[in-house]
Amino acid sequence: MRKGAVLLLTVLAGGALADTYIPGTTVSYSKTKDPITDANTSTVYLDEVNDTVNKTYVELSCQKGGFVFYLNTKDPLYTLADYKAETTPSITYRIDALPARTVQTVSVGGEDKPVLTALAVPDELDPQMLAAFKSARSKVLMRVKRSDGRELTYTFPVKGLPQALQAVNNCK
């Protein structure tokens, strides 16, 4: 399953809205609601520590009363050929010093417009990813092994996450 339309809308809407950073952290949020239904469409962002241009981040997007996980990066995570074959790399993540876990991913974007620099997880794994970030004391490390064998590792500090989740009413 591809999580396309919502991510593309989030990307487009994100350009018009200013994020609010939790002071002293790399965590921010954008509080929004659907103008017709008043549903919470807010988003929480965790910036990657080594990306100085803020193009690598975890996005926790409010959809249908819950958080949906996205990994957005400045680097391509898979190829167009991978996308057409519906093959995406898994994400291995580590919460603080706990053992690493691996989750499968799904592509994002529409059939005619893939987003090769972003990944999501299957819908049933969104709560697992949220729980991982909420349970971390300092950081979550993520590694994506691309089809060319190159591994990309990202570090996401979680300081400020509880405040950001509360600021967006935990998607309620």
Account of the 3D structure:
This protein has 172 residues and is α+β, with helices and mostly antiparallel strands. The protein has one domain. Helices cover 19% and strands 35% of the residues. It has four helices and eleven strands; from the N terminus they run αβββββαββββαββα. It has a seven-stranded antiparallel sheet with strand order 1-2-3-4-5-9-8, sandwiched between helices. A hairpin with a 2-residue loop joins strand 4 and strand 5. The relative contact order is 0.23.
Beta fraction of the residues? 25-35%
Largest beta-sheet characterization? 7 strands, antiparallel
Q: Work out the helicity level.
A: 10-25%
Write down the secondary-structure element order: HEEEEEHEEEEHEEH
- How would you name the oligomeric state of the polypeptide chains in this document? single chain
Going across the biggest sheet, name each strand in turn: 1-2-3-4-5-9-8
The backbone outline, from C-alpha atoms, is globular
- Using only CA atoms, what is the Rg? 15 Å
Which structural class fits the helix and strand makeup? alpha+beta
The number of domains is 1
Quote the distance from N terminus to C terminus. Answer: 25 Å
Mean pLDDT: 91
Report low-confidence residues grouped into runs of 5 or more.
4-16
What's the tally of helices?
4
